[in-house]
Amino acid sequence: MTPAIFGLSGPTLCENERAFFRDCDPAGYILFARNIETREQLRALTDDLRTIHGRDKLLISIDQEGGRVARMQPPEWDAFPAGSAFAALYAIAPASAIEAARCNAMMLAHDLAEVGISVDYLPLLDVRQEGASDVIGDRALGSDPMQIAALGRAILDGLARGGVTGCVKHMPGHGRALVDSHKDLPVVDAADEELETDLAPFKALRDAPIGMSAHIRYTAWDTDNPATLSGTVIEQIIRQRIGFDGLLLTDDLDMEALAGTVPQRASQAIAAGCDIALNCWAKMDDMVGIAKALPSLCDKGAQRLDAALTAPQDAPKLPPREQMLAQRDSLLALAGEVA
Fold first, then answer.
1. What residues have CB less than 8 Å from 324, skipping those under 6 apart?
2. Which of 251, 252, 275, 286 is catalytic?
3. Torsion angles phi and psi, residue 32, rounded to 5
């Protein structure tokens, strides 16, 4: 198995994609708006991917956060609130905010599982910082680490109840970035003691099944490399200090925060200790290059992947969607928030 997650070019597989995926056997896939039209089409696409691999337990993922990051859009699917809505409610009614976040995640899981998606890149555990880039902004669950951890735990639980695995991001924390890592490399010069604030939510949820790295250079820990490519940050900070032993993915390797070719970035990330390289944009030359550059998924990575996809399999049956919707919206209304 190739330790990579690949994107797809359109709403159906083209023949060269089908042949390539069959041969290289990637660990999974990520879907974007270009892959999504209707429920029936999307379910057919995810069924097709499972047929290629001959296994039901397949990592098929998406960024379906709510707010401005949502690949499945109205009118085919409902809109969902951004993380800031739950942060606002938490300020006046913490228990209600936790329950609203759980209900919201259960609804997300209902929509994703219905069309064969097994992983959602949610929750963000980034601690929102004053003056930072808006790339996180209202996606964040707040600026208090323990509030973020409580809401993040509810989101992971809600997704799992619906049979979908969550992913905590962006380890070890994206909240201080002054530039958008999609466009440039953020450099965080905060001292180690200050960065403890950023680590706190990830420590609290260190048992999460999947985590995603940040393309950020933290000079307190590594003056040369961003976290995704830093053996020091991955081993000493993410694995040891945070205590995270789940499946570790890179953020998208096409982002301009990283230097070198995409296959070179993938190779460096795996060598640094990431389990799986995430390559989103379905460029066949890059995907072929990654498949050639990477070793097979190691035994430990395979165990982590299997555990991440096994965790939600025994999820209890969800309440009716209308019931979850009514409960979430009645709670958000306490803070004047709407979905």
1. 103, 106, 107, 110, 318
2. 251
3. -130, 180
Catalytic residue at 78? Answer: no
Q: What pTM does this model have?
A: 0.96
Q: How far apart are the first and last CA of the chain?
A: 40
- Cβ neighbours of residue 122 under 8 Å, at least 6 residues apart? 63, 64, 65, 105, 108, 155, 159, 166, 167
* 35-49 residue pLDDT tens: 999 999 999 999 999
What is the amino acid identity at position 291? A
Residue segments in the chain with a per-residue pLDDT below the cut of 50:
none
Residue 170 annotated to the active site: no
Say how far apart CA 68 and CA 45 lie, in whole Å: 24
CA–chain centroid gap for 72, Å, is 15
d(CA 100, CA 329): 8
What is the separation of C-alpha 29 from the centre of its chain, rounded to a whole number of angstroms? 12
> Which amino acid does the sequence have at 309?
L
Q: What's residue 339's pLDDT?
A: 65
Model confidence pLDDT, tens digit, residues 155-192: 999 999 999 999 999 999 999 988 878 878 999 999 99
Which of 48, 182, 184, 245 is labelled catalytic? 182
Bridge-based pairing of strands 187-188 and 165-166 is: unpaired
Parallel, antiparallel, or unpaired: how do β-strands 26-31 and 168-171 relate?
unpaired
